């Protein structure tokens, strides 16, 4: 596919821009790659897209030039959820609900006036997972590595005819007070809290 020198310079300028949308960058690479003689199959494999996508943007460039790359084809019914409504869902999700430990899609849907399915789609789009909490552990023990290897070794390769027992925390006691503040949930990251907690009862 042949392109003009002016178009080539403009496409290369798009790729050098620090804030180019990902979709526009892929279209620029499709056109530039096609001008270099790459095949549809090769471009699709290199850019991680389908052959249909490569053919679509090659065809749109041929018919409308650079303007055809700037305009995305719209399919299906028009979008009904505004960006402001999406932002309201995100902001509410990142705040802890008053009467629960975390949001459910149904509870948040009632709060923002949307369907639970719409809230769930927005969570998926921005990588929000209110139901997940990860824990992390930092040890200040200088002999931690040796102790860890010794304990794990007991499970992986126990002595012959040995009984290996694991003792956990006291039953019916919830670890609600952590030694460090929790890291709040963020798009793409679940909430995280330290493994250590304070013992607030006496035995």
Structure report:
With 203 residues, the chain is mainly α. It has three domains: 5-70; 83-131; 132-203, no CATH class. 47% of the residues lie in helices and 4% in strands. The chain has nine helices and two strands; from the N terminus they run ααααααααβαβ. It has a two-stranded parallel sheet with strand order 1-2. The N and C termini lie far apart (79 Å). The relative contact order is 0.08. The model has no long low-confidence stretch (mean pLDDT 82).
Write the layout of secondary structure elements.
Elements (H helix, E strand, L loop, with lengths): L4 H12 L5 H14 L4 H8 L3 H14 L1 H5 L12 H11 L11 H8 L3 H11 L6 E4 L7 H13 L34 E4 L9
Parallel strand pairs: 1-2
Helix pairs in contact: 1-2, 2-4, 3-4, 7-8
> Assembly state here?
single chain
Going by helix content, strand content and strand pairing, the class is: mainly alpha
**Which term fits the overall shape?**
extended
Total tally of structural domains: 3
Would you identify the regions where 5 or more consecutive residues have pLDDT less than 50?
none
Helix content: 40-55%
Largest sheet: 2 strands, parallel
Q: What's the pLDDT, averaged over the residues?
A: 82
Order of helices and strands: HHHHHHHHEHE
N-C termini distance: 79 Å
Q: How many E-type strands? A: 2
Radius of gyration: 27 Å
Proportion of β residues? under 5%
The number of helical segments is 9
Order of the strands making up the biggest sheet: 1-2
């Amino acid at each position: 596919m042949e392109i003009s020198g002016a178009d080539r310079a403009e496409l290369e300028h798009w790729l050098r821009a620090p804030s180019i949308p990902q979709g526009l960058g892929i279209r620029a690479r499709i056109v530039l790659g096609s001008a270099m003689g790459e095949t549809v199959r090769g471009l699709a494999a290199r850019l991680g897209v389908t052959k249909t996508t490569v053919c679509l943007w090659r065809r749109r460039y041929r018919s409308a030039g650079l303007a055809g790359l700037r305009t995305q084809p719209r399919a299906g019914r028009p979008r009904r959820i505004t960006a402001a409504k999406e932002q309201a869902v995100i902001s509410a999700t990142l705040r802890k609900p008053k009467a629960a430990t975390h949001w459910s899609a149904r509870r948040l849907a009632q709060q923002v006036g949307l369907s639970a399915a719409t809230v769930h789609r927005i969570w998926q789009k921005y990588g929000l997972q209110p139901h997940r909490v990860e824990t992390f552990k930092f040890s200040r023990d200088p002999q931690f590595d040796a102790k860890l290897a010794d304990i794990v070794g007991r499970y992986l390769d126990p002595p012959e005819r040995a009984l290996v027992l694991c003792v956990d925390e006291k039953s019916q006691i919830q670890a609600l007070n952590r030694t460090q503040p929790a890291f709040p949930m963020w798009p793409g990251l679940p909430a995280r809290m330290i493994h250590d907690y304070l013992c607030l009862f006496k035995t």
